[in-house]
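Dear colleague,

As promised, here are the two records you asked about, laid out in our usual form so they can be pasted straight into your sheet.

NAME FIELD: protein one
SEQUENCE, THEN STRUCTURE:
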Amino acid sequence: MDSNPSASSAKDAAGRAAASAKSACGLPSSAVIDLSKTVIQHTDAEWQRLLTPAQFQVTRRKGTERPFVNQFCDHHADGVYFSICSETPLFDSRDKFESGTGWPSFTKPIQPEFVGVSRDTAHGMVRDEVHCQVDGAHLGHVFPDGPGPTGLRYCINSTSLRFMPRAEYEAWLSKRSAAHSG
């Protein structure tokens, strides 16, 4: 037991401040930790009921959509891109850039804990596959040929994403933050 009440009070305040600190995606840090430990799993039959055939092919079978004719290749609205398979924010439009590849490209994920990378040796190539850590959805690939500050190009299938305009995202953040703190 701490015999100094002001020291104990300072520790309590520091603990509350750390718990309510905002992460890169805007959620309280404690909510990011909770979400990053969440695992959403369904059977293939359940995923097929939840997703369109194209979404299922890309996210669950590691498919690739056609370049230049996808939903977000030429999309320039301000907001956040979520996984189509869960309520996980993945990329911010502020980190999106024109790569000329035909797929939406980002310099970084909105929150590193939400996006995983694994080696992909399919199709006779060696690449780094990108997936959502929460729901396992295949998103695309990451390459070391992007602009600063990261030098990375997250080349993402539109089919694996859902877009939320900035104002709607801010309301979503407020709701999630309130639910997490109370």
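NAME FIELD: protein two
SEQUENCE, THEN STRUCTURE:
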Amino acid sequence: MTVKFIGGECDFGKPEIILNVPIPANLSHTGKFHWALKPVDRCIAPIVQALNDGKIYTAGCCCGHGETEGSIVLHDGRMLIIKNGKCARGDKNEQKI
């Protein structure tokens, strides 16, 4: 996977990853579905990428930054909860991609 680091960081000091993600029509300024490069928390980026690659489109996500459980919202309104995610447990040895 090719990734680009940006200035923003998770609370654990790891740069976010830029992924090409689907933007649903209801969240788009154009009112149409499209793809865009957006920052994703590093520790859940592989999960988000895998879901989108499998045509299970994501609409938003957050790792929880060690304060709460992580979540990934899908285009159809369902939400995946990351109960034992590395960030949610406060483990600074996050998943490498």
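A couple of things worth noting about protein two: The longest strand covers residues 15-23. Residues 5-89 form one domain.

Best,
R.
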